[in-house]
User: Fold this.
Amino acid sequence: MKDVVFTPRGPKPIGPYSQAIKANGFLFLSGQIALDPESGEFTGTDVRLQTERVMENLKAILEASGVSLGHVVKTTVYLKDMNEFTAMNEVYARYFTAAPPARSTVEAARLPKDALVEIDVVAFL
Assistant:
């Protein structure tokens, strides 16, 4: 059994996927890029601004699902350029201040809409 999550507080999917899926006590959020939920437009010209928008999108989808960033157990961060790791990490750390989740960070050759960062998460319900 799985339940689809959708909230107007997060960006509308730009393809055939759901913002998140609830299944077996877990919440799986699709990767988010720096899309403004209201306009659907890409925001931020540097990795710090894009990471902040991504984290706000993830936070909104989590909250719409009845949980918070504190429920996140795993994240995957995709960076266009691993040289931007420190800048992304500074913003990311502001959102996970206590008991941060497990994380993988990889450099990706190209992200949707030429984003500089994309992050997906897994949380418990």
Q: What stands out?
A: The chain has a mean pLDDT of 97. The beta strands are 2-5, 20-23, 26-32, 72-79, 102-107, 117-124. The longest helix spans residues 47-64.
